Amino acid sequence: MKFLKIIGLLYFLIPAMVNGQNTFNHQLDLGLQFTVFTKVHATDSCYYTIGVIIDSMPGNKIGSLFTKFDLEGNILFSKKLVSSDISYSPWFCNLLPLDDGNMVDVVTSTDSVARVRVMRCDIKFQWMATSYCFEKISSLSYG
């Protein structure tokens, strides 16, 4: 009887596990040594991703990578937010869509002082506005 319960359970679980979402796996050469996508925002027609990029050469800073994929996983466009003077890193990896079709992202920028920036961009990641939330994060106490 126990065997029949297990068979019955598998009969209902296996189709649910097999019928999953469409996935893709592509190796991308983005010109940097280390890239990690940390957030995916899916729409009906595409995927928007945020990632962290790091070059392994000494003196290079951390940057952010913003990419748009079609539903098959092909890159439609990508944009890097990098600087030789400032490190940019997504904070909490949020990419929030707005009602007007634009998006907002929160990044930390570090030169001699760490700051949190709220950055507004259009769907092609053209930066429209930047505002600082906090300055001197390194002086905050985490207790």
Give a short overview:
The chain is mainly β. Helices cover 12% and strands 49% of the residues.
Feature tags:
single chain, 12% helix, 49% strand, four-stranded antiparallel β-sheet, elongated, 143 residues, mainly beta, 1 helix
Write a structural description:
With 143 residues, this protein is mostly beta strands. The protein has one domain (35-139). Helix content is 12%, strand content 49%. The chain contains one helix and eight strands; from the N terminus they run H-E-E-E-E-E-E-E-E. The chain has one helix spanning 2-18, and strands at residues 34-42, 46-54, 62-70, 75-81, 87-97, 103-110, 114-121, 127-135. The chain has a four-stranded antiparallel beta sheet, with no helix packed on it. A four-stranded antiparallel beta sheet has the order 5-6-7-8, with no helix packed on it. A hairpin with a 3-residue loop joins strand 1 and strand 2.
